[in-house]
Amino acid sequence: MVYGSQGVYRDKEMNYSDPLQEYAVKLLERMVEINSPSGEESSLSYFLESKMISLGYEAQIDPAGNVVGKIGTGSPIILLSGHMDTVPLGPTVSNKDGYLYGRGAVDAKGALAAMIIAGKQIIDEGFKGSLIMACTVQEEGDNSGIRALIDSRVQADFAVFGEPTNTNTLTFAYKGCLMLKVRCMTEPGHSSAPWLYKNAIEESMEIYKSLKQVTVALSDTSEGFDAITVCIRSIEGGQNVGVIPSECVMIVEFRVPLNIDTGTVKEKIDKEISSYQNENPAVRIVHCFYRSVEPYKADKKSLLVRAFSRTIYDKFRKPVILVKKSGVGDMSYYGKTFDIPVITYGPGDAHMSHTKYERIKIDDFLVSIEIIKSSILCLEQLLRKTR
After folding, report:
1. Does 60 have pLDDT greater than 80?
2. Phi-psi group of 194: left, alpha or beta (phi > 0 → left; psi -120 to 50 → alpha; rest → beta)
3. Could you tell me which CATH class the domain 176-293 is placed in?
4. Fewer beta carbons within 10 angstroms: which end of the chain, N or C?
5. Catalytic site residue from 29, 41, 139, 157
6. Catalytic residue among 49, 85, 157, 380
7. How does pLDDT run across 87-114, given as a tens digit for each residue?
8. Is 139 one of the catalytic residues?
């Protein structure tokens, strides 16, 4: 049994072909070991600021808590962006059997660490442009990190966002997302006479079912990327005493495909809640939308996609796989705002994200560093040919 210098369990010592690979793995181990759920990224921010400076970046923490580093000069300007935050809890951090286990290993510290290392290599190998490395906060929360980056006009010519796509796959599209908060209120009464009073929890469930029915009907299918999907994220009500629940609050998530805008979904929700309220005057309903992200699709024919596709083909001798994801990523905010070529790429199986089995294959992590580096250098070559 061997422990690394930062306390990460390893089942054996590992040998790497060069010192930078060893440095990269140890960097990722430490990043995963530092707990950083959304809203609590500061410890990781300070750590990454220091590491990036030691690698040659001009780095600092911005007012939002993002770590923003710059390296190189001139154009083109490439943004490499990955998020520091994770969902809470996860498996014990360990490096064994060729995998690194721990919360954030896949989503998405593996991609973030790969970008940091690749950025240094890109400049070391003679890239004539400049790189902006953004380690963002709150991607799993309200996306305040990327929105702060946009507000401060951190603009690039191309942008790569780090999320698990596996080493031979690129994500070019994301669904939109609409978050709804519904508060349902009724008159309280004794729980022994439920026929006399409305139950706020039961009414909330009826509202949820009606909202799901009318919104899902907006799409032609009921599952997959092209469907509107609806999920209760949380529900709270009642006190477990002899009183009929008089208040219930639920958070409902609507995932919206490319051919439907969130405004259309909002209109349906507003109309359905108003109708339900009119038909049930004993129930008071208050609702609000607190997050709205439009679906987004990047240009599959951009030079950025071509550069990654060529690099991935050279590595695996297989055509790149371009996928659409049902989640929401920082790419959607940035790409829509600045209308530049963007793509999402990173090591790891996305199905491991947010699970108790989260892990990343070390070899895939190291391969992704090479692919990011080679793709940006390839992009530079493609740009020269177009001029």
Report:
1. yes
2. alpha
3. alpha beta
4. C
5. 139
6. 85
7. 998 889 999 999 999 999 999 999 999 9
8. yes
